[in-house]
Amino acid sequence: MKTQFEQIMDGLNDVEAFLAGEGEGFKACVPQEVDVKAIRNRLGMTQAKFSDTFGFSLDAIKHWEGGRRTPEAPARTLLTVIDKNPAAVLTALNPAAAIDCSKYTGAHVSRHGKRQASRGVTKRNAHFASGRRVAK
User: pTM of the predicted model, to two decimals?
Assistant: First the structure.
């Protein structure tokens, strides 16, 4: 029986061989279907907020959720990571505004990472000028 050290070294040797192009057998398991609406709802986000936060087009979100289109493999991969660890994706996409996504329930997050209560204001019905809300 191998010691833990030997098992770790074997694993590191496998990784080194794979990175050198010598190893085989490492393949990402991308799910064939992803429930975009369920992921979005778990995060407490609107379609617009989800698309802005993670870089998807709003139309794509609407089509995926409506069943008119299905996400391609790269999008399914990103959606899977968002589902499993949204904080990692937020940190990778915007390290300066990293937040604890496990507590995210629809509250807005300031650029300083502080949570603010949601006031129901969206980009569609208001914008900010000089720090105060101005209706369109």
Answer: 0.55
